[in-house]
Automatic annotation (TrEMBL):
<dbReference type="InterPro" id="IPR034015">
    <property type="entry name" value="M1_LTA4H"/>
</dbReference>
<feature type="domain" description="Aminopeptidase N-like N-terminal">
    <location>
        <begin position="16"/>
        <end position="117"/>
    </location>
</feature>
<protein>
    <submittedName>
        <fullName>Leukotriene A-4 hydrolase</fullName>
    </submittedName>
</protein>
<dbReference type="Pfam" id="PF01433">
    <property type="entry name" value="Peptidase_M1"/>
</dbReference>
<dbReference type="GO" id="GO:0008237">
    <property type="term" value="F:metallopeptidase activity"/>
</dbReference>
<keyword id="KW-0862">Zinc</keyword>
<dbReference type="GO" id="GO:0004301">
    <property type="term" value="F:epoxide hydrolase activity"/>
</dbReference>
<keyword id="KW-0472">Membrane</keyword>
<dbReference type="InterPro" id="IPR045357">
    <property type="entry name" value="Aminopeptidase_N-like_N"/>
</dbReference>
<keyword id="KW-0482">Metalloprotease</keyword>
<comment type="similarity">
    <text>Belongs to the peptidase M1 family.</text>
</comment>
<dbReference type="GO" id="GO:0005829">
    <property type="term" value="C:cytosol"/>
</dbReference>
<keyword id="KW-0479">Metal-binding</keyword>
<dbReference type="InterPro" id="IPR001930">
    <property type="entry name" value="Peptidase_M1"/>
</dbReference>
<keyword id="KW-0336">GPI-anchor</keyword>
<keyword id="KW-0325">Glycoprotein</keyword>
<dbReference type="GO" id="GO:0098552">
    <property type="term" value="C:side of membrane"/>
</dbReference>
Amino acid sequence: KILIQIYHMTIYYIFCSYKIWIEYKTRKDSLALYWLRSDQTSDGTHPFLLTNNQFTYARGIFPCQDSPQVRFTYTAKISVLKAITVIVGGRQCKSIIKGDQDLHTHIFYETNPMPSYAIIIMAGLLKSKHNNFITLWAEEKHFMQSKKVLTFCRKAINITNELCGFPIQDEFNICVLPSNIPEIELQCRTMIFVSSTLLDEDPIFMCDTIARKIAQSWAGGLVTCRNFQHLWLIKSFSIFISSKILEFRYRPMIQMMFMRKRIFYDLNVKMRLYGIDSQQKLVPSLTDILPKNITKSVPDEVGYYLLDSLQKDLGGSTVFAQYLKHYMRTFCYQSIDTIDWKDHLFSYFDSKHEILMSRLDKWLYKLNLVSMYDDLYDSVRNLSEILTQQWITTNTTDKLSSKLTRRLLHPNINKMHFLNYLYTSPITLPIGKLESIHSIFPLDEQTCQIR
C-alpha cells in the first residue's frame, strides 16, 4: 500500500495541482517478467524481455491498481540499446531520443484509457514486416515461417472489424515469441503474442488459436470485465467472436467441426481436472482463490454455449451480429459486470424478455452440466469418437482398427481429437494400447501440441 499525505491543505491550496514522483524497482525474479539472456534467444546476441501482466502481476512492474475496472492513460520512456525494438501496450514508439552511440530512449503514450494488464512491455532484437497497418515482429529464426501468421491475421482482423465495429485501422502488432517463452495469453487492444511452437501445428489449430487472441482485442481490450469474477465476459465473448472469424474464413465443415470439438474438449478437461462443482456458474465465488487459479473456476466454454444459444433464439446470426456491434459501441473502453451485460441485453431485445429470462435462468443460475453433457457431446460426436470408444473398451486386442488408423494418419487435427478423447476418458489404458498408439504416430516425431 502507498499512503500519500499532502500537508498545508488550507483553503488557499484546494485548487492547487500536485505531481507525485514514485521511485521503484522490480525484482529480477518477479513473476511479471519473462527475461531471456542472450544465449536463450535464437540469435544468441541480445537478451529479450516480455512482461507478464496477467491478473494481478502488473503491480510487480509498476505501482498501479491492477483491477480490470481501473483504466488510465499513460506515457512511458524506455532506454535500451539502439538495436533493440521496444513496444509498450501494443504501440510502437512515437519518437526516439538518441543518447550516446549505443543507447536510445523510446517514448510512448496512450490516449485511450487502458487496464493495467494491457500495458505490456516487449523488448528484443526482432525483424519486422509491414502489411498496411499490421506489423509482424519475429526473431530471424522464425521470421520466414511467421509470414503465414501475418496473412491470416490481416484477414481475421478485417473480419472482426466488420463483425464488431470499432475497427482497428491505425496500428496492430503481432509478436512471435522466442521458443523459450511458452504459449501465453496476454490481452491488449492492438497487439497479440504468438508462440513460435504454434507455427508447426496443424493450420486449423493455429488459426483457431490466433483467432481467439484477435477476438480478445475487442472482448478484452475494448470492453473489459469489472473484476475477475466476471472474467467470462472476456473469455466467452472471445471464443464466440473467434468462431465467427473461422466461420467467415473457412466454409468447409471440417474446420468448423474442429472448433466446436475444441470448445467441448476444453470444457471436458476442466470438468475432469477441477471437478464439476467449480463449473456450476459463469459468475463463481472467488473467495480464497489465488489470481493465478481464477481460470480454473470460470467455465468460459459454457459462456460460449450461452451466447450461441441466445443467437439461435433471438433471431439468428444477422440479428445477433447487430447486437454485438451495439454491445461494443455501448461499452467501448469501459469495465462492466454481468449485471451491466444483462441490462443491455434486455434493453436491446426489448420484445424477447420471456425468452431471455428462461435462457439466463438456466445458464447463469441453474446450470447443471451433468444433465447437459450428453447433448453437448452428441453435437460434436462423429465416427472417430465411436471407433475410439470401441477400441479403449475392447479387451481382446491392443491394435487400432484399420478404419481408426486411417483417420489418425492424417491430418493432425484427427490426432488431436483422438488424444483429447483419451485424455478426458476415465478409462486407464494398458501398456499394450499405449505402445499401439506410439507405433502409429511416434510422439517424439509430433508437433508440440500433440506431444
